[in-house]
Amino acid sequence: MGLKPKIAIYDFTDCEGCEVQIVSLREKLLDLEKRLDIVDWRLGQEKKESGPFFATIIEGTPITQDEINTLRNLREKSKYIIALGACASLGGIPGIMNKENRAKWCEKIYGKEYKPRGIDALPLQAYVKVDFFIHGCPVDQKELEKVFSDLLSGKKLSYHPYSVCFECKMAGNECRLINNRPCLGPITQGGCGAVCISGGSPCYGCFGNREGANIEGLKKVLEKITTKDEIKRYFSMFLNKN
Ligand code: SF4
Ligand code: SF4
Ligand code: SF4
Fold first, then answer.
1. pLDDT digits (tens, 9 = 90+) for 32-43
2. Average pLDDT over residues 10-26
3. Tell me: the pLDDT tens digits for 27-80?
């Protein structure tokens, strides 16, 4: 038992949907626990050890100084830091709100006297080195299994070597751009199976930019089919903190 790698699972500001994906592994999680020891996980168990950890998996983004301190402390005592989901990897949904908007909405909702404690929601790598990003909002269960398995077998963690467009073509979808409908698939890291496009929605880039993405090239294409405000809105969903 004592020889199993110790894993911690932490969360900051987020919706906890990615952790629910871990819980939803069910029997597969029990199988994994024969090979690893989850020693700290607020959402999943009462057991709590203070480290050091083989790997710490972190969901969400820190938005207070205390949370930033906790993150830095986790970095010091973890061999691997793994960002879990779009909030941790990109700032995600919490990152849509910036300082100016926060001040405006806080005043509107809570009144002039209220002093918000939160700061802009930035991705984990704004504060510490991150060893791997499990992309998605929420993350995919198969991807989770692969990361756990690769970590335990000492295999190098790796990303899919293609964009969402590749998966979109494999799924047999007609390209939205050809029909003058925006999409961020060409610059987005593959791995989701182009689930949004297959379901009739555009890709908003929740898997983050793929390596070597030609962002300016895509913007030029988008400028021919929609307004600058619309393009800004697309990029503000997940990619505005990159
Ligand atoms: S990435 Fe999406 S599903 Fe995961 S915690 Fe953030 S908002 Fe929730
Ligand atoms: S619809 Fe989007 S993801 Fe699919 S091929 Fe076109 S640009 Fe790429
Ligand atoms: S299609 Fe784009 S927005 Fe949808 S899950 Fe995939 S990466 Fe995320």
1. 989 999 999 999
2. 95
3. 999 999 899 999 999 998 888 999 899 999 999 999 999 999 999 999 999 999
Distance 197 CA to ligand 2 centre (A): 7
Sequence spans of domains, the chain: 6-153, 164-238
Starting from the CA of residue 139, give the closest ligand.
1
Nearest ligand 3 atom to alpha carbon 203: 2
Judge contact between 123 and 95, C-beta under 8 A: yes
Ligand 2 atom nearest residue 181's Cα? 1
Q: Whose CA is nearest to atom 7 of ligand 2?
A: 185
Q: Is 93 in the pocket of ligand 1 (CB under 6 A)?
A: yes
Any atom of ligand 1 within 6 Å of the Cβ of 86: yes
Instruction: Please give the pLDDT value at position 238.
Output: 85
Does 2.30.30.40 match the CATH number of domain 6-153? no
In short, whether 85's Cβ falls inside 6 Å of ligand 1 is yes
- Distance in Å, CA 2 to ligand 1 centroid: 32
Q: Which residues contact 207 (CB under 8 A, 6 or more apart)?
A: 86, 135, 136, 164, 188, 189, 190, 191, 192
Confirm if 45 and 71 have CB atoms less than 8 A apart. Answer: no
The pLDDT tens digits for 133-153 are 999 999 999 999 999 999 989
Atom 6, ligand 2: residue with shortest CA distance: 175
Pull the structure tokens for residue 185: 């698939």
State phi, psi for 174 to the nearest 5 degrees.
-80, 135
Q: Is the pTM of this model over 0.85?
A: yes
